[in-house]
Design goal:
Largest sheet: 9 strands, mixed
Shape: globular
Oligomer: single chain
Number of helices: 10
Radius of gyration: 25 Å
Strand order of the largest sheet: 8-7-9-10-6-11-12-13-14
Bound molecules: thymidine-5'-diphosphate, magnesium ion
Number of strands: 23
Helix content: 10-25%
Strand content: 25-35%
């Protein structure tokens, strides 16, 4: 008799399960993400041959564990290495996720070009045929001496091939196409994605082979979002950017082997992705002059300062509930800054729509950008122009006071490199050394900025 089957509803975003369908997931609050999945009455087991031997799992003294620093393999792409924390760690499982068409396959294939020749690479493709991969490789000028392409979607076959070939690196494009035969759900469903990911984790840890997984994020939730596998893998890198723009940002959101604040900046060109050594310069391109609502900020992304342009548009509205729109910035933080401007500076936004945009597809989460954003909003409302040679740095408290930010020297030096000559900073921020050619304007409150600009 066939095993009994029952169905459950699984959230494709967070993996929350429920016996009944619901429009809204009770786990993460997303709408329309609950999907029906068949679960067989038998509990899913790890694949038989993958059982870790008892000996390998024996406890070991921390002191006695061998560790080699040269365990990292360089990708040959500086920006990529930086985000990984200095290269690929042997035996690690790295997830690269992003919207379809953003360039995930491109960056990994390009990495194959620069990685040293002794590292053999197994490229497992469940999406594209070997011929399509060849076409892309031609375009990217990847010779492919050390690359083996394997078009397969069955987990058992992939595992067998990896253990047989023992490559130096494995790329899975993409995890949503891989499935295990013994699980009845369709490829891309939450249970398939989860089980296959943990299978790859075991494979990477037992064999010491680093594995890259590509995972699509889909807003409609028709494919299991990489959120369900984030806690399983060693590192999660997000590849983001506006698809209509050329700029792409690789960001580490989780990294067991490095900092999570680092970003890598790329530009999509005809011959693949190009590294951007000086992202500030790119973000400053085409900055309008003599227009209100434009401010410049010096951010810190990991260890690296980046100059970004902020645009605010404030226009009067006849409607009683004005619109607040933030692109690349937190909507609630925007509302908070508007509230501080109203209460502490006497600026009235109640009859105006406010739109905020961070140029270049950047996403700002640092409070150090508060001062620049609030000043841009005030400039948009009152139509005064912020001088184009000025950079604003500082966090703002609810009392309208400016609060100190970290690594102020680094931020100012980056601004100086790009030709800025004035910098507004919190009054209490101390500089390690004097910076020549840069006028430092210290302000203790947001209100003070307007009189000193
Ligand atoms: P791709 O790597 O296939 O995206 P993903 O794997 O994330 O789905 O990237 C596809 C996009 O990149 C496509 O829209 C075309 C663009 N592209 C270029 O602009 N130049 C190139 O050299 C390549 C290979 C792709
Ligand atoms: Mg792809």
């Amino acid at each position: 008799m066939p095993a009994k089957t029952k169905t459950v509803f699984v959230c494709s975003q967070c993996g929350y399960t429920s016996p009944k369908w619901a429009g809204k997931c009770s786990g993460c609050g997303e709408w329309n993400t609950m999907q029906e999945e068949i679960v067989s009455a038998e509990k899913s087991k790890p694949m038989p041959e993958s059982r870790i031997s008892k000996i390998a799992a024996a406890p070991v003294k921390l002191k006695e564990i061998e560790y080699f620093d040269e365990n990292r393999i360089s990708t040959g792409i500086k920006e990529f290495d930086r985000v990984l924390g200095g290269g690929i760690v042997k035996g690690s499982l790295v997830l690269i996720s992003g919207e379809p068409g953003i360039g995930k396959s491109t960056i990994l294939l390009q990495m194959c070009k620069y990685i040293n020749e002794e590292t053999s690479i197994l490229y497992i493709s469940g999406e594209e045929s070997p011929r399509q991969i060849k076409m892309r490789a031609e375009r990217l000028e990847v010779s492919g001496e050390n690359i083996t392409v394997f078009a397969e979607t069955d987990m058992a076959a992939i595992k067998e091939r990896v253990l047989e070939k023992k490559p130096g690196l494995v790329i899975i494009d993409s995890i949503q196409t891989i499935s295990r035969e013994d699980i009845s759900s369709a490829p891309g469903s939450v249970s398939q994605v989860k089980e296959c990911t943990s299978e790859f984790m075991r494979l990477a840890k037992n064999s010491g082979i680093p594995i890259f997984l590509i995972g699509h994020v889909n807003k409609e939730g028709s494919i299991a979002g990489p959120k369900v596998m984030e806690h399983m893998v060693d590192a999660v890198l997000y590849f983001e950017g506006e698809r209509s723009l050329d700029c792409r940002i690789l960001r580490a959101v989780k990294n067991r082997f490095g900092s999570t604040n680092e970003i890598g900046v790329f530009e999509m060109a005809n011959d693949g992705l190009r590294e951007i050594d000086n992202p500030s310069k790119m973000f400053m391109q085409g900055k309008p002059e003599g227009v209100s609502g434009i401010a410049t900020v010096s951010l810190l992304e990991g260890s690296r300062p980046i100059i970004a342009e902020i645009q605010a548009l404030v226009s009067s509205t006849p409607f009683p509930a004005p619109r607040r729109v933030a692109t690349g910035y937190d909507y609630n933080r925007l509302n908070l800054l508007i509230a501080v401007l109203e209460k502490r500076c006497g600026l009235y936004f109640g009859a105006s729509d406010a739109y905020l945009n961070i140029i270049g597809g950047l996403r700002i989460s640092e409070p150090a950008a508060d001062l620049a954003i609030a000043t841009a909003l005030a400039s948009g409302l009152k139509d005064f122009i912020i001088p184009s040679d000025t950079v604003l740095i500082g966090e703002i408290g609810l009392a309208g006071e400016t609060r100190i930010v970290s690594s102020i020297d680094k931020r100012i030096l980056e601004a100086k490199k790009l030709g800025f000559t004035r910098c507004v900073i919190p009054a209490k921020n101390k500089l390690l050394s004097e910076i020549k050619g840069m006028e430092i304007i210290r302000v203790s409150s947001l209100r003070e900025v307007f009189s000193k600009l």
